[in-house]
Amino acid sequence: MALPESEFQRRRGALSAAVDRPIVLLAGGVRDRNLPGYGHPHRSSSDMLYVSGCGEPGAAALLIDGALELYLPVAPPGDALWHGPQTTLEARAQGCFVSEVRPIAELEGRLSGLLSSGGVATVASPDPAANERLAWWTHRALRFGVDPGDDDLVDALCALRRRKSASEIEAMRTAAALSADAHLLVAAAAKPGVSERSLAAMFEASLANAGATPGYGTILTRRGEILHCHDHSGRLALGDLLLVDGGGELGPAFGNAQGYGADLTRTWPIGGRFVGRQRAAYSAVLAAWQAAVDSARPGVRYRVVHDASASVIAEFLRAEGILTIAAEEAVGIGAHGLFFPHGVGHLLGLDVHDLEAFGDRGAYPPGEGRADIFGTRFLRLNLPLEPGFVVTIEPGFYAVPSILHDPTLRERFKGCVDWAKAEAWLGFGGIRIEDDVAIAESGIDVLSEGLPRSLAGVEAAMATRLDLAAALLR
Ligand code: GLY
Ligand code: MN
Ligand code: MN
Question: Whose CA is nearest to atom 3 of ligand 1?
Fold first, then answer.
């Protein structure tokens, strides 16, 4: 799996056309964990990956009139003893389709020449040390996620990265397929008595075996009502719901396609069968998923997709006697958010919340803020959908104590909720169903179609013999 040269030429040509000066991007380096030289696993900045296809720590890219110069760190003498021999600069730049590759030590001099003749454009790297170097070289103080960089470059990156090409979509389909295998392995192994930690390790081993790494901290928990629970200290019990929100991103084995990821959630009933009210709640979330998918097509604003899901959850809450007002009214004031408190999804790509390092600039129309509605406030995208957008569809249903006991929410929704009926769900946990979807000219393309989501499909996946599921690791 590799992206073609034409893909990088298109990106570079479009960026140079939109920004009237050279563009410099820093990948960021290995960040120390506890000792100098003992670092966290490296992950290059997504903008660097997008423009260069190079995932090496410490690398930099300089784009001038559509041609890319790549700058790479050179190991000091003696380093080969500890880390093995370094190949040539040219070999390391293979697959990046660059006009030149040079040692990183030459970048500062090259930039000082460019700065005295019109300046350069840049964006922040996730690595603060890289931003300090950038500030020193370019006299620009940038802070990742806060002050992300030059407006023209940020806008151009948002417009380009948001619309995926056919080859990017294939890379993401690969990420979704190998992530689906990891979910299926966990489903087969998830039995009463098994620890969350062992299942999380198994999930990530399956990704590693396929050449991928977790694209975000794996969420694997019997406490699914904690939306981003990264604690894995629990042990499964019969009747639990196990929520697994995990996705791999393509690693260096995928060459210049590295970084593209998946974001998938399944909720598995421990014991192999949905029991009691789990069945009805799961069916409601599945219907909400279907309503979202049915409404997602080019030209439709993502808020419409969100509201389609929210209405189904509100109907369910009404049928359960929790909401005492009509579903449409409930969605308008955010009462559905008592059990579905997040947005229906977001952009996905090189980042799990794609472009979120630029705030809402990549995901909301200029000048438009978030809706001031409980739950809907967390919707991370509200552009009209376009062919090439890849988004998640991830409705859920959660019994969250901190929501149901919140005095402000109780006051706000006092006339529309039967609180005793709402509280009867405490201890239920949470359900989320999340898939990755590419918007096509004529509708949608579910990239994660290989991962079962129906009641029967989920139960069948849990009944798979572990030795057969482990065959996915070969
Ligand atoms: N995995 C985080 C999310 O679904 O947004
Ligand atoms: Mn997601
Ligand atoms: Mn997710």
Answer: 263
